[in-house]
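ingest -> validate -> predict -> emit
validate: passed (alphabet ok, no gaps, 544 aa)
predict: started
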Amino acid sequence: MAEIINMPRLSDTMEEGTVASWLKKVGDKVEEGDILAEIETDKATMEFESFYEGTLLHIGVKEGETTKVDELLAIIGEKGEDISSILENSNGETQNSKEGNDVIPTEQSDEESHNNDETSAKEEEVEIPEGVTVVTMPRLSDTMEEGTVATWLKKVGDNVEEGDILAEIETDKATMEFESFQSGTLLHVGLNEGESAKVDALLAIIGPKGTDVSNIAKNFKMDSGSDKKEIAAKPIETPKAEHKKETPKQVATTSSSNSTSGRIFVSPLAKKLAEEKGINLSEVQGSGENGRIIKRDIENYTPSTSTASVGKFVPSGQEDFNEVPNSNMRKAIAKNLAKSKFTAPHYYLNVEFDMDNAIAFREQYNSLPDTKISFNDMVVKACALALKQHPQVNSQWFDDKMRMNNHVHIGVAVAVPDGLVVPVVRFANEQSLPQINAVVKDFAGRARNKKLTLEEMEGSTFTISNLGMFGIESFTSIINQPNSAILSVGTIVQKPVVKNGQIVVGNTMKLSMACDHRTVDGATGSLFLQTLKGYIENPVTMLV
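emit:
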């Protein structure tokens, strides 16, 4: 009798899961305890084993696809067993040969028209030749909505073996290697390096050498949120990011119309881009078929110097700018921080600590052989110890509950070229100062090279952001949800201070803690900072 396998709940906060990879394919024999698939949850990618024996009869969720907990994932039963009634009664919409590559719905014109180069779309089925596999943009993180091809490791015409790295894909969290699950020849790439597309959009086509896949590439229907792309059979030159506009306003009209009748042939996307950029299409030379203006012509367009100024003289300076596409990491940062700022009621507690003892302590500690710690390491350790005494600050807010964490995992914000990542020092209260130093230094180095794993950036219970090394005296931060607080650490400043009724030269450091008022009241946050002050101003107490 067939057994229905639903998407399991693999973590307490998991609401949906993504199939990272299938370890079995339809028709394979499955033994109890065999790993069926790797499931990506909101926290990690985990192996999911079968509790049944039989044959894998149906796969309801493809690799890279996401579905909610308890939705149809797979069906296991006797070989040849009829499961049509099960599929008909399933709430999912995956029963129409979704596990196979039988057909791809596409858009194709009722009749070709070379006069206006435009088409009216209708649904049709495009058959995929035997042995050909369409590779789509994978979902490489739980929050990934689109990906950018950072680098192609294979080029059209190259032989590809199963397990070879096809490309490096930039997600909203990291740049990850994407390996091929098929063997064959790379027949087509749908994105150039630096270009982005939605998850499930066409990425590449692999199959037997010499196979004609132009019809598949031309008619592949992308994710509904994607723009229809002009896809070549091989990569085209990446459009330039620099745009320039001449200042003279009175220019002679010089038409480079690509039609003898005066009609300009232009793709819809190129026309749209030209309107957005205020470009006169009559001044653009088309590089497409029969002189048609296409996207790259608009991207590369620079006003011709032959359109010289006539009439009144105006300054001939040049306005120029560079457009940098938002990376997936930058988009994710913007989305997450905006959500935090406008959902969590932030308030801020500001303090200033005496750092004289901390400076002396660090100097003595670093005099030990093969030992080196930073002030940031001391702050991490002090926060970890203080959080054990004030678990309310180490809490997390969820819509239906508040979680009081007994463990202390401290996220340490690290600046990278694309934005900010927050690797996590786990069980920081149990680690020594040199251990914390080694972990943070390792994280910082790998973060800048985009080599951190998703697991290393998840699970923080409290966050520290330190801009002291940049000379910033004080600042405030946005809470890294679902945490309840984040500590902003400034630089150490030498200035006049009052000690024992006397004005002397002292060293101080300003800190600001942003708190979520839903979980941390003002008094609670203040008591935490008092405990933190004791550890920072008397660091030897951290060793007791």
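The two ends are 63 Å apart (CA to CA).
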